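I have been asked to look over a protein record a colleague put together. Alongside the sequence sits a line of tokens, each denoting a local backbone shape. Please read both lines and tell me whether the tokens look consistent with the sequence. Take the sequence as given and treat only the tokens as open to question. I have pasted the whole thing underneath without changing anything:
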Amino acid sequence: MLRSLKLLFDLIVQSCLSRRNLLLENLALRQQLAVLKRRHPQTRFAAPDKLFWVILRRIWAGWKEALVLVQPDTVVRWHRAGFARYWTWLSRRRKRTGRKPVGKDLREQIVRMAVENPTWGAPRIHGELKMLGYEISERSVLRWMRKAPRSPEPARRWAAFLANHREAIAAMDFFTVPTLTFGVLYCFFVIAHDRRRILHCNVTKHPTSAWVIQQLREAFPYDTAPGYLIFDRGASFNAEMIEVVKNFGIKPKRTSFRSPWQNGVAERFVGNCRRDLLDHVIVLNERHLKRLMNEYVRYYHEDRTHLALAKATPAGRAAEKTAPEVGRKIVARSRLGGLHHRYDLAA
């Protein structure tokens, strides 16, 4: 008896569902027919038509079978576009909360104070504004100070110094390399400005000032020390290391805070090393990184051309004076495990 009632109930449900599907299919076909009957040079779905199909997609699983004029992906795209427009409209109607925006007059006053007083910081400017009766936080003052125009003269003087003394300048820096076991290795290098030569390169897990001093002794043996040495404000480049640099007869040149452009030659080498090698390998340990860096420095000196050297190499790779003959064989020599190649004319 219960089985018979269950079968009867299932039959009623299926008949209702089939009738519902039939009605929805009929409605979908009629809507598309109405679109076709419109007098336009090309059949177009208006906004209500798109809304109809977006809603139908949500309530009827068989909507794709009744869709004829456009692809199902088009309806999905309509839905996403409507979703984005709805939230855009909602965000515009929402009332703003939080702090009041900084007015134009106040912004101009902050920029004026920053330009007229280059030695003032955010606390000093904030204090002056407070005396004038302005209500603004010190953090906001700092944010708008950074947008003040800066004088190009210091940068020009620094660029002139680098250009005029490049034969007597070297630079040093660290960069980090992650390992397979989620450790961090520190790669130290010293680079000459004249021909972009790497004077010294080594790897460590613990970059202390004593370790840096030993690396400098190895980088500048006998009387090979340059006239100037550029470095940043890293913790390893402390007063003890600076004193040793002066004992070598080198004038230390420390860059300003947050000014990597002042040590651009070293920063360029770091970027080249990452793009050419480190972004394509997984370093296993310190020994592995040392081997990779030794191979890269050899490739960097002997094979890789440099824009700053007029497409030459630091080691002075000889270029062919005439174009090769037609059909002459060119040999490709693998470098860095096949990441790069050097091309020479076959003998």
